[in-house]
Amino acid sequence: MIVRKLTASKLKHLLPLSVFAHSSANLSLSPLCSNHISKTLNPNPHFLFSHSELRPFSSSQSKPSLPFTRDGNFDETLSQSLLICPGCGVQMQDSDPVQPGYFIKPSQKNPNYWTRIDRRPVAEEPEISDSLKKGLLVEDENPNLNPNPNPDLAEKPVVCARCHSLRNYGKVKNPTVENLLPEFDFDHTVGRRLVSISGTRSVVLMVVDASDFDGSFPKRVAKMVSATIDENSTAWKMGKSGNVPRIVLVVTKIDLLPSSLSPTRFEHWVRQRAREGGANKLTSVHLVSSVRDWGLKNLVDDIVKLTGQRGNVWAIGAQNAGKSTLINSIGKHAGGKLTHLTEAPVPGTTLGIVRVEGVLNGAAKLFDTPGLLNPHQITSRLTAEEQKLVHVRKELRPRTYRIKVMDYRAGHSIHIAGLVRLDIEELSVETVYITVWASPYLPLHMGKTENACTMFEDHFGRQLQPPIGESRVKELGKWERREFRVSGTSWDSSSVDIAVAGLGWFAVGLKGEAVLGVWTYDGVDVVLRNSLLPHGSNDFEVAGFTVSKIVSKADKASNKSGQSQKERKLSDPKAAVHSSSTPLTANAG
After folding, report:
1. DSSP H or E stretch at residue 97
2. String of b and e for 47-61 (b: at least 16 CB within 10 Å)?
3. C or N terminus of the chain, fewer CB within 10 Å?
4. Which pLDDT score, from 0 to 100, does residue 258 have?
5. Alpha-carbon dihedral 574, 577, 578, 582, rounded to 10 degrees
6. pLDDT < 50 regions, the chain
7. Are strands 479-490 and 504-521 parallel, antiparallel or unpaired?
8. pLDDT of residue 247
């Protein structure tokens, strides 16, 4: 009505000056009415303001997105003016639910909401009281009594909606928001503080997953900190200022490894692999389990001793390596008031630097950092449902194949789901033992190498999951081969491992030499190393598919599809004749 009756000169006095001073690209007009409105608002073509410069009458404006930062609450001065999520370290805001850090302010509760209701049976009273007839609550005899039954329990801190969803439901609330998160720049955010020659002492907690040591080991960080130690140590010896960092290697989730593994042998193996990965200046090594509280007390004592009263401790590791879980467990041993960090089996739970209070003495600080994204881990390409199948949540159990060949002619293959394949191409002996160490939820298959192409076409995404679905096979990348020449001196124990980053490993036991081909998706790291768990299983797997829910479900779907096709052929004689003329091929497992 305003547009129809008022000209632009009259309308200008009714609208604020900012309407004409700012342009609005969001003014959406339908093609049918745009010309009419433009003539009404601007009858004179030489008028100073055109209709495209008017803001829409609606008060709903698109709010500018907040600048996203990964610094979290590292800077105490800035953190006092900014609201930082204590669970993940993201800057919180309550204006836009589709932006990172969104949270909802908790509603104010009535101070009397704890008041108790008189639940005495009415039959026990001589007569119905007037207060009950009126629906009133019975007041406590002691009004000064604290209504909170547990006054020592600290109030839950306000966290962002993402942390709330991860803590209570184990999944991200809004997956589209994850795409808005920029990649964590470790060099700019943390690296420059570690290599600084001045400032307080830095202690680097390098957190590595025991079940995926090579895949989760931060090689780039290890090499950078080791180089800084060499440079600053030389400067310090020359009498110059030199802050020499300390590296504490923490291997988490050791409860996932078999209990038969010797801790001494495991620590020796860890130090060797760390040196090969670039960490040649280790101060100490700790083997811990945050779930079972193994080794945490010694770790806390070591951290307190190294940091002193003013040091900074940085927890650094790959995504889903267990940094936040480790810090929460450390806080329980250290005592004091500790903010609970968000834990979830989701890569990239921590978004910014989180300063953890109440753990260290004096002015020493403990910082949790966002997980490092390792593209060479195969889990970085999997969906949330596929990652659930790959992640190891219980103690690893060996699955061993004994492969015997005639006349030293190899030609057997072992699949771990639809993610990796091991081909036994050449053997100098007649027997080889292959033990698979991976999640028990992943199906396996052993068969002839000549049928590998058939397996890829017919069973990837079905019986061999992940990937879940045939369309996901192409999305994971190109299928590539790597060659390894191995040798061993005993059949009783494995000599070498072939580890696939983010998945697991093959342990190879033989008394002789062999040429092995490993097929997986391009860009996924595959390394040859000394055997971690030399002993396999006494019960051997048989050829074909292993028994699993994935395989049985896929077989049922395949049988149902085959039965429906058979019924259609019986009902259609022409289709039956056509199918009978088609040559049949048999695929051996």
Report:
1. none
2. eeeebeebbeeeeee
3. N
4. 95
5. 170
6. 1-66, 139-141, 143-154, 574-589
7. antiparallel
8. 95
